[in-house]
Each structure stands twice: as structure tokens, then as C-alpha cells.
Write a structure and sequence with these properties.
alpha+beta
Length: 429
Amino acid sequence: MLNLICDAASVFKTIGYVLLAFVVLMVMVLIHETGHYTAGKILGFKISEFSVGMGPKIFSKTKKNGEVFSLRLLPLGGFCAFEGEGEDNKNPKAFNSQKPWKRLIVLVSGALFNFVSAILIAIIVFAAYGETVAVVNNVYDYVPASNRQLLSGDVIYKVNGRRVYMLDDLSRYLSDDDMTFTVLRPTEENGKTVYKQVELKNIVKRKYYTVVLTAVNGNFDNGDRKLAAQDVLYSIDGKLLSQAGDLENALRNAGETINFTVTDGTKYYDYTLSKADFERFIAAEEQPYEGIGMSVGYAKYKFGFGEVLLRVVPYCCEVGMLVLRTIGGLLTGAVGIENVSGPISTIAMTTQIVSTGFGNVLMLIVLISVNLAVFNLLPVPALDGCQMIFVIIEWIAGKPINRKVQSYINGIGFVVLILLMFLVDILKL
């Protein structure tokens, strides 16, 4: 009976997280549509309906000025409908009767509200919970002495004078020339951990070969943990593995028993196996990479409030640029479909994050808000960016593209976009 009660409680808890995930996503949509609505009201547009959700109405209220506010059944979006959208309407307050510059302001305001809300929420998150920063886990022994200036626990603050906001920044800032790192180094003072800014020069980037265990066919336990696939084979009999052919040479020179060390990126673990068992049960592969010979993790770090205010806008801009680089990578094939989320996987991810705490929920809102802002400005049919292209063409040419053609393009684009979004989830199954 107790097990049934616990199972039921777990189910209801999961349902609650899912519902809260929908609420989080709907809040971001509401912010976006509020941007369109606010700009439209200020500039004198006639608004027909402001809707939260899609599908059949479950609640509706009409104001004295004719504006309809509605709540619809499906929590998968929303809209702000202006009079005269998609048609020529003689009403001077209709959407297409307004001057092009006014329409552009209304169209861009949805993304602008998303971006501004992301900045404001990011201020709260960074000030109250701290910012997720890149932290040095390990600096490998095979790197040049200059690189070993970096120490475990260092927060990577700048590279060549450029602030690091996310791990993607770090990978892009690395160069072949000597680099200067600015780190925030933890030190103990009067029993408290204090971070001091330290400048490290002559950090160099080189080509290395990481040996990754691709398969471990057996239960090899050193007493602390089991050997696992994706462990990095660090050394064999004291020989560090960092260059092409090191693994082959180390195994060839090994005796009947080998002592080897692996790392999971944070800690090192020692194992002893017979050479025969190693070669029979363990598969390893040399994988080249260019870097400075260290593993990097994430940690929370609280900057002063003044620094927070300086970092939030560049941080949100970097997130937006990452979205654009990801889209570009998808088009060129550099980024795989597994790195993209459709509506189902987005809800699943949001549900998981909602269960981890309020700070993470707020951070998720920041990230998805920036994603919405950037994505909606793309020149893709059915999105605000495509509408803006139509308005700009009309402004330059002095006459609009046929309204029916615009409607067909947006209608077909909307269907294709929805199908592609769900296709992403299907392909990931």
C-alpha cells in the first residue's frame, strides 16, 4: 500500500513538473506577444484579438474598444492579431494601412520584449544565484610548463582581454599564438575562500591526441570505481599519452601486467590489468584535438552587482550569436540534428530543469527567451522576420507584394515549420 502511495505521489509530482514546464513556455510566448501588443497600442494600430494558446477558445473577454482577450485550449503558442493583417483594409488603423516604419516597429517588438526580459531576468539570476562560469578541472602533465600556470579551480575570466561568458567563447578565443589568460584564483584568507584576479602569459595552443576508451567489456573495479567507456586513458606504466602512436608504443613496450591511469576530466583513477586482458576486453581510440591541454567544467560564481550589470547584455548577445552559429552549422552540416530540440524534447528538457530549482527555471527562461528573439527575426515564412522582409520590400518598391501571395507563403511556411519541428523529435528517437 505504501509503495502504491509513493508511486502515485511520484506520478502527480511529474505531472506537476510537466504543467509547470508548459507554464514556463507560455510565459515566454506571452512576453513576445505583449511586445507586439504594446507597440501596436502605442502606435495606434487596431488590435482584433490577443490570445494565449492555440486552438478552440476556453475563455474570452471583449473590451469596449472591440479587443478580444482569449485563452485557448492548446498551450503551444499565442498570437496578437491586428485588423487588416494579410489584406488591404481601408481602416486607417488597420495593420497594412499603417506606415512601413510603424509596422516594422510592431513586428520587431516581440523579439525585443523577449530579449529585454532575458536581460532583466539574467540580472536577477546572476545577482541571486551566481553565473555559470568556466572553471579549470585539470591541467595535464604533458603540456608545456607555461600552460601549467593554470591551476585546478581557476575561473577563466578573460582570454587575450576578451571576457569569457560561456564555454563556446573559450573554444573560439584560443589561438595558435601565445595567449594571456586572466583567471579568478581561489585562495584562503582567514578561513574564507577569496578569489583574486591573476594574469597568466604565454599560454600556448598545440595539437594533442586524447586516447578515449570506446568500449569496456568487463567489470574492472579498482575499489573506488569501475572502469567505464569514455574514460580518457591518461598514461600506461607512467608513460603519458598525448601524441599519435603513443598508445601503440606503450602497449608494445609493456610487460605482462600494465598499470594505467584514466581520467573522467575531473579526477584520476589507477588500474592494474594483465596486458592480455587489456587488449582483449578494452577498446581505445586516439582522437586528435587542438587546445591548451586542460579539461574545463562549470561552476557557479557570484560577481559583484556592478559586474553583473556589465555582463548581462554581452552574455545575452553571446547566447544569441550561439543560436545563429548553431543554425548556420545545421545548414552546413557542421552541427548534427541531435543538438536541436523540437517541441516534445523541449517540453521534456524544461520539465527536467523545472524539477531542479527556481534558479535553474529562471536561467532556462533567459536562454529560451533569447532563442525566441533570434529565431523569430529569421527571414523564414510565418515568422516575424519574413513579415519584416515583406514590409521592407513594400517600403522600397512603393507597393506591396500581392497580399494573397504573402498569405500563401506564410501559410505554407507555418505548416512546413511545424512539421520540421516535430520531425526533429522523430529523428532523435
